[in-house]
Amino acid sequence: MDKTKKSSGILKKFIIALVVIIIISLGLTGFFYYLRYFGPNVTDKQAYLYIRTGETYIDVYKTIREEQMVKDSTTFDWAAQNMNYVHRVKPGKYRLKSGMNNRRLINMLASGTQEPVTVAFHNLRLKEDFAGFIAKKIEPDSAAIISLLDSSKFVEKYGFTTEDVYSMFIPNTYQLYWNTSPEKLFKRMYANYEKFWTPDRKQKADAINLSPIQVSILASIVDAEALHDDEMPTVAGLYLNRLKKGMKLEADPTVIFAEKDFTIRRVLNKYLSLNSPYNTYLHTGLPPGPIMMPSVNALNSVLDYRKSEYIYMCAKDDFSGYHAFATNMADHLVNAHKFQKALNERNIKK
Fold first, then answer.
1. Could you give the CA distance from residue 165 to residue 190 in angstroms, rounded to a whole number?
2. DSSP annotation string for 212-271
3. What is the per-residue pLDDT for 337?
4. Which of 34, 67, 95, 233 is 20 to 30 A from 336 via CA?
């Protein structure tokens, strides 16, 4: 009897021990899984993870490991495999937060929940400047952007030529995704262009016999000529007067643009004979495209120009950045002589 009780007691102890071991094992397994999924793992080594278009999970894992973006890359890989992230890689710019766990990180990457890029641009002189600036903000390089700007077939879809397509880019602050393609970039810029050209603005353009593109071209000249925004409507009115009279615009900034030498401070007679469609001393009317990206202020200054009889202007001799305006050649020559004298006194020869 005692022997039976003793055997029963041993069995109970064995069962209890086995249950305890199972419970501990389950607890350890659960804790193991918890740590792999929910334990803090992201470091503060990098603020962002950039995944380029076409990259695979192997590329992503390599970047995360080499850039020490997580404390334990093995647990990240284990979680990524188990969550099937290896087949759900999406390009983009992803914000990393120190202490983020594997599950949260992988869910963010797999869903493509990336942080937008803020892009603000204005008064960029050339298409190449624009392409270079944008390429620093998003994934596509400047060559990819330029190739579309220079593609007659592509820009024609939006109603532009390669000479005037720069008119499409309205200076503003934009939110873009880092992996935005050049094609999607153009689509976004054109949507904003159409938004800018409201019926009211189009009506004002019609009233001065200019298309929106022509307004942009003239605005680029106004922007290059007027250093101060409050003078832009007067400068715009002067150029509109010259257009109405069939006079050449004779705008110095167009000559500088034609020369592609933006260090020129004094437009000499030798520059005025340059054979270029952008030389408004040679050709009547507007040049074929903008000479810089016009600001919104310049665009509005053309549409809401200041009426006057001015047809001549010259930079003031006080170098304030303002202009002396004239309605006749005699007064203009007086103003021009004063400015040329001031240039000579400062030994500005070019």
1. 10
2. HHHHHHHHHHHHHH-SSGGGHHHHHHHHHHHHHHT-----HHHHHHHHT-TT--S--GGG
3. 87
4. 233
Residue 105 CA to residue 152 CA, distance in Å, equals 43
Secondary structure class of 74 (helix, strand, coil): helix
> Is residue 29 situated within a structural domain?
no
Neighbouring residues of 198: CB distance < 8 A, sequence distance ≥ 6: none
Choosing from 166, 181, 196, the residue where a domain stops is: 196
Burial (0-12, 13-18, 19+ Cβ within 10 Å), 268: exposed
4, part of any domain: no
pLDDT tens across 126-157, in order?
A: 999 999 999 999 999 999 999 999 999 999 99
Q: Where are the alpha helices (DSSP H) in 39-151?
A: 57-66, 73-82, 102-111, 127-135, 142-149
User: Model's pTM, two decimal places?
Assistant: 0.83
**Which DSSP letter does residue 42 get?**
B
* Same domain? 79 vs 129: no
Assess whether 131 and 265 both reside in one domain.
no
Res 320: pLDDT: 87
Distance CA 281, CA 289 (A): 16
Clarify whether residues 143 and 251 are in a common domain.
Answer: no
DSSP codes joined into one string, 291-348: SS---HHHHHHHHTPPP----EEEE-TT-SS-EEEESSHHHHHHHHHHHHHHHHHTT-
Q: Are residues 277 and 341 in the same domain?
A: yes
Number of domains in the chain: 3
DSSP 119: E
Provide the residue range defining the domain that includes 88.
Answer: 48-111
Terminus-to-terminus CA distance in the chain, angstroms?
A: 120
Q: Do 133 and 163 reside in the same domain of the chain?
A: yes
Least confident of 246-255, 287-296, 336-345: 336-345
What whole-number distance in Å separates Cα of residue 274 and Cα of residue 124? 24
Cα radius of gyration rounded to whole Å, the chain: 33
Encoding tokens for residue 342?
């001031």
Is there a contact between 252 and 343 (Cβ–Cβ < 8 Å)? no
Better-predicted residue by pLDDT, 39 or 293: 293
